[in-house]
Amino acid sequence: MALKIGRNDPCWCGSGKKYKKCHENFDAKVEMYRQKGYAVLDRNLIKTPEQVEKIKESCRINVAVLDYVENHIRAGISTQEIDRWVHDETVRRGAIPAPLDFEGYPKSVCTSVNQVVCHGIPSEDEILKEGDIINVDVSTIYHGYYSDSSRMFCIGQVSPEKKKLVEVTKECVEIGISKVRPWTPIGNMGHAVHEHALANGFSVVKEIGGHGIGLDFHEDPWVSYTSVEGSGVLMVPGMMFTIEPMVNMGSGEIWTDETDGWTVRTADGLPSAQWEVTVLVTEDGCDVICW
Ligand code: MF3
Ligand code: CO
Fold first, then answer.
1. Which ligand is in closest contact with the Cα of 290?
2. Residues 252-268 pLDDT 10s
3. What is the reported pTM?
């Protein structure tokens, strides 16, 4: 049995305010939605304002590192060169690249070229050439707080088909962002992402999704971009998660390279694109805190 928190007791969120002046109304609203049948996230995953500020500091570094990549990426460099930039620019700012040693991952960043869907491992042998598209996925730990975002880059002139894939995938993320509203289910966001990809003749990878983030690299919930409207956990103020659909030019089928255990490729060998942002659900919509 758990004792009900008193209205004059300190709030569970750690703000130091009385419960009645802090999360009492929030909890009542969550309970009402729970009774209506909505899935709700464990409340220890709801970020306090203090945590949000710390996580945003991590995000600022993540964005700066991606800006550095954006300003330097070009044909003729290796993906290992990108790994060096990300490592050095992150460490120079007093932070740690989150991928390094994460579940045995050997590098500081993921670099996914053309038909690589995600988790491409940087290599001296992989040289970027005119016409390539590449996703650079950067994640940062700063004072123990996590951030995560990724961008696509077109190397020189790319084919109109690839350009469209890259642009439509970015639009998918923007449409997803527009569907992030408190007290609505997260499945509405994933559904809108999927619809936009399908409307453009593309497919969305089903097996790999996004995630909550902040105090850990990957927190609940797991986030689908092929979800059904009305499904999934209720988005509530203070919730934080990534929008990072993988959009394929051909079929959505994928396979994971068993020799390195990481690289995910399209089954049909056609290109794949991905952009990733981290959003914070607010009282009246959402705040894109990492892009
Ligand atoms: N950055 C990826 C994500 O968006 C996770 C990569 S895990 C790694 O969730 F180990 F491959 F880096
Ligand atoms: Co992510």
1. 2
2. 999 999 999 999 999 99
3. 0.96
